[in-house]
Amino acid sequence: MSPIDALDSNRLYTRTDQALIASINTQVDEQVSFIDCHQRAAAGLQFGMAMPGHGYNIFALGQSGSGMLDAVRQMVVRDAEAKPTPNDLCYVNNFQKPEQPVLLSLAPGQGLQFKQNVDQLIEDLRSIIPAAFDSEDYQAKLGELEHEIGSRQADALEGLGKEAQQRGIGMMQTPGGYGFAPLNKKGEVISPEDYNRLPEKEQNDIQESIGALQEKLKKTLRQFPQWHKELRDQVKQLNSETARIAVNNSVSSLKDKYQACDSVRQYLDEVERDVIDNFDDFRPTGDSNPLLQLQNGGRQSLQRFAVNVLVDQTGKTCAPVVHESLPTHGNLIGCIEHTAQMGTLTTNFTLIKAGALHRANGGYLLLDARQLLMQPLAYDSLKRALQENELRIESLESRFGLISTVSLEPQAAPLDIKVVLVGDRRLYYLLSAYDPEFPDLFKVTADFDDDVERNDANRAMLINTIEKLIRKENLLPFDVSGLARVIDQTSRIAGDAEKITTRMRNIGELVRESSHWAASNARQTVTASDVQQAIDQQQFRADRIRERMHEQFANGVVLIDTDGECIGQVNGLSVLQLGTLSFGQPARITATVRLGSGNVVDIERETELGGPIHSKGVLILSSFLGARYAQDHPLSISASLVFEQSYGGVEGDSASMAELCALLSVLSQVPIQQRFAMTGSVNQRGQMQAIGGVNEKIEGFFDVCRARGEVNGQAVIIPAANVRHLMLRDDVVQHAEQGLFKVFAVEHVDEALELLTGIEAGQPDANNLYPADSVNGRVQARLRELAEARARFASRVQGNDRVQSNEQPG
Amino acid sequence: MNSQDKTASQASVLIVVDTAAPLQPLFEQALATARRLDLQVQALLVEDHNLVRLAELPFATEVDRYSGVARRIERGQIDRAMRRQTQRAQAMLADLARQHSVSVAATTVRGQYLSEALAAALKANIAFLYRQGYRRLQGSGSRAALVAAAAPVWLYFDGSADAEKALQFGLQLCGANHSALKLIIPAATDKRFAALRQQAEALIHAASADHVLNESVQLKRRQQLPRLLREEPQSLLILARNSKLVANPQARNTLDEITGPVVLVS
């Protein structure tokens, strides 16, 4: 096998060509959006927005912090601009059923105008109606009616009075009614003495006459209530007619104005009817006591004519795009507020408040899926609205049945909306798996890439996005070197030299902080060094734990060798993720072997510190051992593998190649050079497979080497498939350029073994035998020895068993 | 203050009401007039003694105004009711007098209303009379009209010097109240009516009050008067105290039938 060369330093970091950046037009193009990089997501959004029909709502999924919301908003706004402005929505009183307010839909911008018109109408009626009822005409008619009834009563009573007088009897008003008494010649009631002096017959005649007159009086009085009722009816009719004439003109002109809108005309008819029926509400009550006014309704009684403009589209020229950042149940579907009045909570249709669904009706509503799911019943309410295609305002309390007081049931608003949920992939898949209604309501996905190709077009779009940010936030301009460094860093964040990350949050932070450091450095433009300073400072701020851990390597608390050689011991590499910080560090992996039945014990797994993927890697290497070296005899070893001084969980199979090499070292008794660290997973054929976090791992080993002393000759072995991911730190690259630090890319375990041991790995002959002095040959020989030893041991044990059984008495 | 005013200030305004029917608008009119003319006010509250006699009769009963049910009435009951009515009238009068800043001396008598009223009126320059008839005022509109004092004023003009005085007073009252003046002219013939009307109109014209005169009605028979007044129950009748209608005992029946507010001017 030909010796493997270390990677050239230019393969450790792919620099952006500054000349290429200089050729890109850095003028901001508003039409270009970073979402254009996400072709799949853009296509999904386009489709979802254009596709009519129930359930074609959109779930935009991608990595958190990738600027999905902004990208979606930009695209949705672009689409909304071509759509018509939806109608204004107003709630008005339902005069038949006040607990069910009526929804009016008016042309855009007319809601507020309608409210003003109705307010003006009511204000006008407050002066017109009292004027009509104070008018001479009305008073004369009313007086006539009252006079008529008065005359009828008086005529009847006077008639009776005259009849009585003709019989010598006076009719007079008593405190409670009327009484009859005989009169003397002077016209006065006779005294009791005079009466008693009258002959009995005369007395009887008088009493008889009075009796007859009383009967007539009773008959007459019984007619009075009927006459009063007639009067009341006539007055009522007069009042209605007066009010109708007063109201008609004002309402008619308003009806003409809203002739095109049937529902408004219908509402105005109701208003007219109600005003006529309750004209007294428009007349001054004279209640000066505020409590009495409150009790009687006061001015509040006219509140029933108010117009609650729920959605006002005044000044809007296109469909709305609403982003509700706090999608609570109430913020989403609206709510009915209450006011405290005389110690009780009351409500009415003017206290109905619009939700985001109302405001976005006819357009788009953007919601953060996580926020939505975190709010009680919000997701459920959203689904119900989308399922029923209508928006019904219902309070949480009443949904839970927590309150039993009378509340409102506002008329539902027809819903025509596209909802775009923005969330991470896990949420999308969880909802898809566990909510059977979800796929019916969110049929369209807009899947955002975590990273995109690092090609010219995407570079240009990224630069355009950076320039927009600079302009929007008034940051310092970036020179070519600064832009190039930002692009390089986006590849580093992506963990791939051929990709650009789409995490706009990280890019934005880097651009802002670079501008800050440039300003601190009294520079007018942001250069590569400012960007580097921003990166270093970010690293420094979050670096406390990494430094402490590397200190432990340096002072020998955590044992690691970075020079010399050792049998059965290799430097593996791991990545630690702590919040937003991730960094690599070496870990000593050791292996021991003894006679056994082919078990490779993963101590991490046995102690439940190893995850399933790590255990899988160990099982694969066991399988590799058997398949490669022990095809004609049993694998007669019992091996143990351990991550030394690892007290936390170990997951992933990126150390499986290192573990294999440690095992082969102990089997072959060939020492491994400790200046190497390695990472990579292995398959059953011994091939090296790609792993994650390659940059962090290399830099981790580099940092530990540096912390322990001079970096001189240390190297890292990585899978060849990971070379494209290399975007190493500048100091690492510089050491590589000077030949002080090396990175080797290997494809097979044999290549790794040769690098680690400096001895040829060896190729098998036709009989599958490896050269005796090769690493593989030594492994093969050792395994054969162990197998034979196992066989000898087994026969000795069997022999002992036989002797023991022969010695038993028959 | 001129000499005429001085004379007036020694004179007085009399209010005579049946305690069963204290009428606030009438009180107000009288008090306003007294204040305007700087006259003293005396009030005579008349309790109808006929009611007492009725209650003393062995078969005394009353028919309830609302239910039409007949029930016995007793003297004590009538006395208590009268006392309440009198107290109410006195309180109302005192209250209004305070509002109008006019002092009022009130007296209560028990007797026959018309006799008491006419007897008392002899001592006063202007007498405001009112007693409850069968015609009870209906609704708030009527009351409002009287309170506003914009109700028409009927003036009984028979051409006498006293009638001319009464006309002068009527014109003042109409001017103060913005009321319309309607003349009732007792005249058996059209010719007489025309002459009296001309006389009245000349006086009105001289007082520059042409706009106040609304209409003139010929009264051929005095018995027609109550019916005529009944047409406008809120109206006020002004007549000279010495007119035949008051002075002639035979005409008293007609006066007795008038149940609206009446002002006698001497």
What's the layout of helices and strands?
The complex is a heterodimer of chains A (810) and B (266).
Chain A: H1 18-23, H2 39-50, E1 58-61, H3 68-80, E2 88-92, E3 102-106, H4 110-134, H5 136-166, E4 169-173, E5 177-182, H6 192-197, H7 200-257, H8 262-277, H9 290-295, E6 307-311, E7 321-324, H10 329-333, E8 335-336, E9 339-341, E10 344-346, E11 352-353, H11 356-360, E12 364-368, H12 369-374, H13 378-388, E13 390-391, H14 396-400, E14 413-414, E15 418-423, H15 425-434, H16 438-441, E16 444-447, E17 451-453, H17 456-472, H18 480-494, E18 499-501, H19 504-520, H20 528-541, H21 544-554, E19 565-566, E20 569-578, E21 581-595, E22 599-602, H22 603-606, H23 612-629, E23 637-643, H24 656-668, E24 672-673, E25 676-678, E26 681-682, E27 688-689, H25 694-708, E28 714-719, H26 730-737, E29 741-746, H27 749-757, H28 775-806
Parallel strand pairs in A: 1-15, 1-16, 7-12, 12-15, 20-25, 22-23, 25-28, 28-29
Antiparallel strand pairs in A: 2-3, 2-6, 4-5, 8-11, 9-10, 13-14, 17-18, 19-24, 20-21, 21-23, 26-27
Helix pairs in contact in A: 2-3, 4-7, 5-7, 7-8, 18-20, 19-20, 21-25, 23-24, 24-27, 24-28
Chain B: H1 3-10, E1 12-18, H2 24-37, E2 40-48, H3 49-56, E3 61-64, E4 70-72, H4 75-100, E5 104-111, H5 113-121, E6 126-130, H6 139-147, E7 153-156, H7 161-177, E8 181-186, H8 190-206, E9 213-219, H9 224-230, E10 236-240, H10 244-247, H11 252-257, E11 262-265
Parallel strand pairs in B: 1-2, 1-6, 2-5, 7-8, 7-10, 8-9, 10-11
Antiparallel strand pairs in B: 3-4, 6-11
Helix pairs in contact in B: 2-4, 3-4
